[in-house]
Structure formats: C-alpha cells, structure tokens
Write a structure and sequence with these properties.
Glucosyl-3-phosphoglycerate synthase, Spore Coat Polysaccharide Biosynthesis Protein SpsA, Chain A, Glycosyltransf_2, 338 residues, Glyco_trans_2-like, alpha/beta, eight-stranded mixed beta sheet, 39% helix, Nucleotide-diphossugar_trans
Length: 338
C-alpha cells in the first residue's frame, strides 16, 4: 500500500456512540455531531432495550433536523463490548469513528478524520486528544509520550494531554478512536473481557489487535473531542471501585498484555505489576507505601484483588487465543457473541 493525496473525499463515515442511562450527555454529543463542518454519513446510537430514558430522548433526536442518518441500534447484551460489537456489525461506512456519549466532538473532528484517511491509504487507525473536563475544570497539561507500552509493561496513555505533530502509536483511547473498515475486517472487541458495564481495557485490546494486522496507527492532537466523564452505572465507578471491579481491571490488562507482548516482555510486565505497579493498579511496593502513609489495611485487600485478577488472566490466556488471532482464522468474537 502507498500513501496518496486527494483533494475530494469519496469516503463514507459512520459514527458509533454506545450509551447507557445518560440522555443529557447523549444530547450534547449529538448536538456536536450536528454542528460538524463535514457531516457524518450516519450516526449509530447503540442502546440497551431496557434503557427507557435514553429511548425517550432518542424519539426527539430522531425527529430533529439531522444532517446525517441517525440509527438506533439495540443490543440485547449488557456492557460496552457487546454494544461496540453490535455497532461494528451494523455500521456501513468506510471509516468507523467511535466516541463516548459523554464526549462532544469539536466542529472539525470529522473533517480532520476524512482528510487523514483520504491522504494516507496505509492509515488503519487514528486517535486524537480528548480534552477532559472533571467537575467543570479542564485537566490541562502537555505530554509528548502518548499511546505507548513501556518496556516494563506500563501503559502510558496520555491521550488527553498529547501535544505536537501526528505520530505513530501502539494504542488508542475509546472516547476518540477511528478505524478504517478494511483494517477492522472480522475483528471484534474481545468478549472475554470482564466487567459489568464498561469493560476496562477494551480499547487497549482492540487497538492492539488492529495494529497487529500491520496497519498504521496514528495519534493526532488536532482530531479532538471535549470529554466530560460522567457517572458509570456499575461497580467500576470513576471515584470508587469495588474489589471485584479491581480484579476485573487486572484480569483484562494482563490478558491483553500476555497476548500482545513477546514472551520475554510479558514476563517483565508480570513481575513489574506484581512488585511495583501503579497507584491505580498497585503492586507490592505501592501497597506498602500506601499502608505506611494511611495505616489502612484495605491497601492489602486491593493488592490481593489485583493479583487474583492477574492470575486468572494468566490461566485463561493459555486456553483461548486473542480476538485478532481468531479473526485471522476467519472467526470472530462478535460472531460468537451473536
């Protein structure tokens, strides 16, 4: 494949917005999509059938003066992975742009996307900055290291703080990730990932799977959305997680790392997360430091939950291959879920 430049686009763009019990946030997102300089060809809102508040709100949105085809797609299964897979099955565009219901794409978002994919036929995936507003305040800052996995296995996202020129990356963030349909092919989000609502690391898993097929993946800060993190209606809250949710997060992370890192790198990651870890995913050192500072024995409970999830992932990774490997054999996790 070679890079080409075109002055007019022939690409069609589908925008996917999975949503659950956030009608006010969804309205803001759809308003932002109506204001795009380059309109979407279709917008797919993926909602659960029991989410009455969202469906009532969508009756109004469907009757609005939409510059795109607005489609409501129901998912019979709970969780973000099921919603995303249902959207991938239903989307018709050459480009599939995914954003969250609590995000509002900036006015040139789709124009930037169209230009990037039209100008480079080797581009399979694109991400951009999500400007995060927490409790009304912008989390401002600048980071040059974005979308990488360090040698220790530590994930450095920083998509909400990235600056500078477009650059190739290893992973994208779910609030602002865009894929070429031909790069996705039969790939689907991994249905093995645990979690009652927004299964953590589903964006990490999917972007790494697409990258493993050989397509270029780029982060460009100009491809921007405003992001207003909203309440989650599960045990994986933004401010407080249950021990079960912590174990699920560790399970998902280690499952993904074991399947996308080489043999030596995955062992380094295993021991680094066990010995050191991060504040969000504490290893022994972080747990000990927290105990010293707070005298709160709950630190050890968090550590044990993390290790339990990691051990379960190591066991399961040996028995069932990654989603991208299934797709390469003509099978998909999406087909299994259906």
């Amino acid at each position: 494949m070679t890079s080409t430049s075109t002055s007019t686009s022939t690409l069609s763009i589908s925008v996917m917005v999975p949503t659950y019990r956030r009608p006010a946030d969804l309205k803001r997102c759809l308003d932002a999509l109506r204001a795009q300089a380059r309109p979407a060809d279709e917008v797919l809102v993926i909602a659960r059938p029991e989410d009455d508040a969202t469906h009532r709100a969508l009756e109004t949105e469907l009757s609005a003066n939409n510059p795109f085809l607005l489609r409501v797609i129901e998912t019979g299964l709970g969780g973000q992975v099921a919603a995303l897979n249902r959207g991938l099955d239903a989307a018709r565009g050459d480009i599939i742009a995914i954003t969250d219901d609590d995000a509002a794409p900036r006015v040139d978002w789709l124009a930037q996307i169209d230009q990037a994919f039209s100008n480079d036929q080797t581009l399979g995936a694109l991400g951009g900055r999500d400007w995060v507003f927490e409790r009304g305040a912008l989390l401002d800052g600048e980071r040059s290291e974005v979308g990488v996995i360090r040698r220790t296995g530590k994930i450095c996202g920083n998509h909400h703080l990235g600056v500078g020129a477009p650059r190739t990356v290893s992973l994208l963030k779910g609030a602002n990730m865009i894929y070429r349909r031909s790069a996705v092919g039969g790939l689907r989000f991994d249905t093995r990932l645990r979690g009652k609502g927004a299964q953590p690391c589903n964006d990490l898993s999917f972007s790494l799977s697409v990258r493993h097929t050989g397509w270029k993946m780029v982060y460009d800060p100009r491809v921007a959305v405003d992001h207003f993190p909203a309440e989650r209606f599960d045990d994986n809250g933004r401010d407080a997680q249950t021990l079960g949710a912590l174990a699920d997060t560790a399970y998902n992370l280690h499952l993904v790392l074991r399947e996308h890192l080489g043999p030596f790198a995955r062992h380094i990651a295993w021991y680094w997360y066990a010995a050191i870890g991060t504040r969000a995913m504490p290893g022994f050192a972080h747990a000990l430091l927290a105990l010293t500072r707070t005298r709160d024995t709950a630190c050890w409970a968090r550590y044990r939950a993390m290790r339990k999830g990691a051990q379960d992932a190591r066991r399961d990774a040996q028995h069932e291959p990654a989603a991208y490997a299934l797709a390469m054999r003509g099978r998909t996790d999406g087909a299994k879920a259906a």
